[in-house]
Amino acid sequence: MSIRLAIIGAGIMGSDHARIFSGDLPGASVQVVCDASGERARAVAEACGAADVSTDPLETIARGDVDAVLVASPDETHAPLSLAAIRAGKPVLCEKPLSQSGRECLDVIEAEVARGRQFVQLGFMRRFDPSYTEMKAALSDGTLGRAIMMHNFHRNVEAPANFTGQMAITNSAPHEFDVARFVLGADYTAISVFQPGAVDGAQTGAPVFMVLETDRGQLVNIEINNNAAYGYDVRGELIGEKGSVFLNAPIHLRYNIALTAAERYAPDWRPRFAEAYRLQNRAFLHFVRTGSFPAIAAHAWDGYCAARVAEAGVEALATGARVDIAVAERPALYQRS
Ligand code: ISE
């Protein structure tokens, strides 16, 4: 039987997920598209052939004709809607971040622990990106030797108007926090955050530069520049004792024009991570069908860890101090073999 999905949030990511589920993946259909704007919901529903639209997310999650939920509404709704899906006993693929508050992530974790199983797959899709998968393999198969450092650059063309300085840390950087932790198989112990004196730190999307320390003695640095002007650009290099590996973004064309050889950047993250989103969503459908949580996907505990790093990062930015990162005890439900 085809899995009937509810898409909650019909913005950039909601519409992209609706397109992937309805067009790229067999065995699923979009049943309802829900958005605070009925008009936006209708436009996405029409594009993906959804049966119905709604403006009420809680009612949508509870519907008998909805088997699983995709949450892509504003960040602050992610945890409450994930909790509603858990209460309804429905698997949920929730866009990152799970919450900007570690405490709220623990509410989700406690709800899953109380039910004795996982419901929430978190949309840290880079774990499914072939270049990060290969990077992780270069570490686990011994090619690189022990990991020592990882460099990460995350650049957007222009920050949205509502982006505060903190959102570089709470909205953009969680991808980096999660994927570096995933690749290294380590946890963070401390964070320091810097801002270049050459720009106004209060400006929308002001850049931040972070240095994280791990419990395996590695250093991870992260540049977030949401006003990079030239394109969406994610770079990463993992340095081991025997060498290093550098991410290569998929490039399909090289332009030779006007005495110049050039490769183009995408305007945002969707083309760069198209395959990662597709593989992530396919893994989610398998999870819904079998109840078996995808081995590499991020779960609520991973969301909690990213939120704790972001909280410490916000404090480090405000105080200028190096901040220790403390986490609660990891419940057995989230131990990976
Ligand atoms: C967005 O939510 C993302 O996931 C992008 O990867 C990131 O570049 C952007 O800053 C976020 O707002």
UniProtKB/TrEMBL annotation:
Transmembrane segments: none annotated. It comes from the Bacteria. InterPro entries: Gfo-Idh-MocA_inositol_DH, Gfo/Idh/MocA-like_OxRdtase_N, GFO_IDH_MocA-like_dom, NAD(P)-bd_dom_sf. Residues 132-245 form the GFO/IDH/MocA-like oxidoreductase domain. GO terms for molecular function: nucleotide binding. Pfam families: GFO_IDH_MocA, GFO_IDH_MocA_C3. Residues 3-121 form the Gfo/Idh/MocA-like oxidoreductase N-terminal domain. This is Gfo/Idh/MocA family oxidoreductase. It comes from Ectorhizobium quercum.
